[in-house]
Design brief:
The protein has 357 residues and is mainly beta. It contains one helix and 28 strands.
Length: 357
């Protein structure tokens, strides 16, 4: 039988050595051998790109929320992650190892819109649509205080970087309120005509920066309790504000599909609007998509309604990463304080931790 097959193959050969079209020829078998790289000590070496972080894997998926996740923040020491969303709960996660959820903070009666850790990491503040903000003890998970005073949804919150611990909140009632951790009532109230979607302190915590439905970014002087500066530029609602690590600039995200960089130094020369980053998208959902800085200030990132995370180089405005993975709008992104890791949360109820290179 083998001799007959060999004769058939010979008979079907062309004069120039090839086979006629449609001829039956023996197929080479695929090798099942697996190649391993070994070093001089004959140890198996890791293949693929070099790891750049202490995460258990280059990408980690955290699941547990039962609805859209609106905010996620790293603890200042980088070992802990907090998240909150439409299910009214705040989850605390380990960043390294298996990324276990080890605590759930309950108390809000409405969706949690934003979270912020204090600089020392002992305190977590949350803003909610139940018209309140809450102060939580990170170590015990207990609620220290509930901040009452707003008459509508509280969309944003932020903590001071220096001096005595203070909080600022922005609400749909048009009010921006400043709170002292030692006092029951707000210490300052700044009034806007339209809803406030985002707020933060400046570096010295003597000014408050806010943005909202009127498209303008406003800088309020706490000493004079008055509007100090107005920064026009966005063509639609401002959904996020983030102060740079050195305190000289503010990053803003807007529903005009732009992320903008502003110089907020007291005596800045020339134009206050410094850069515009393009790519991140907003859509009909009108979610409050957030933005953030890397610890060095060399990179900025923003959430997007097209289910991707956008990361740009600050100086050149070059898009470094467009990271897919989410199945819904990416509502918040945060850089790890010590390692090249970025966290993102979205309307798909998922949180991703991913390595950057």
């Amino acid at each position: 039988k083998i001799v007959w097959l060999e004769k058939m193959a010979t008979a079907m050969k062309r004069p120039h050595g090839g086979y006629e079209e449609g001829a039956l020829v023996p197929a080479p078998k695929k090798s099942k051998e697996v190649a391993f790289l070994k070093n001089v000590n004959k140890e198996v070496m890791r293949t693929g790109p070099a790891r750049s972080s202490s995460l258990q894997a280059p990408t980690m998926l955290l699941t547990g929320h039962e609805a859209d996740i609106f905010s996620t923040k790293f603890h200042p020491n980088g070992d802990l992650l907090a998240s909150g969303g439409f299910d009214r709960l705040i989850y605390l996660w380990n960043v390294f190892g298996e990324c276990e959820n080890f605590a759930v903070l309950k108390g809000h009666l409405g969706p949690v819109m934003e979270l912020q850790f204090s600089t020392d990491g002992d305190t977590l503040i949350s803003a909610s649509t139940d018209k309140t903000a809450a102060i939580w003890d990170v170590e015990t998970g207990g609620r220290k205080r509930r901040l009452r005073g707003h008459t509508s949804f509280v969309n944003s919150c932020c903590t001071s970087r220096r001096g005595q611990l203070q909080f600022v909140t922005g609400s749909d009632d048009g009010m921006v309120k400043v709170w002292d951790a030692r006092q029951k009532r707000s210490t300052h109230t700044f009034s806007n005509v339209y809803q406030v979607m985002a707020c933060c302190f400046n570096d010295t915590s003597d000014q408050v920066i806010s943005g909202g439905l009127d498209n303008d970014i406003k800088v309020w002087d706490m000493r004079r309790s008055d509007l100090m500066m107005k920064l026009p530029g966005h063509g639609d609602t401002v959904t996020a504000l983030s102060l740079s690590p050195d305190g000289t600039h503010v990053l803003s995200n807007g529903m005009d599909n732009t992320v903008r960089l502003w110089d907020v130094r007291p005596y800045a020369p020339g134009q206050r609007q410094v850069k515009i980053f393009m790519g991140a998208q907003h859509n009909f959902e009108k979610n409050l998509l957030r933005c953030s800085w890397s610890p060095s200030g060399a990179r900025v990132a923003a959430g997007s309604a097209d289910r991707c995370v956008y990361v740009w180089e600050t100086v050149s405005r070059r898009l470094l990463y467009k990271l897919p993975g989410h199945d819904g709008s990416v509502n918040d992104v945060q850089f790890h304080p010590r390692e090249p890791v970025i966290a993102s949360c979205g309307s798909d109820k998922k949180i991703y931790l991913g390595e950057l290179h």
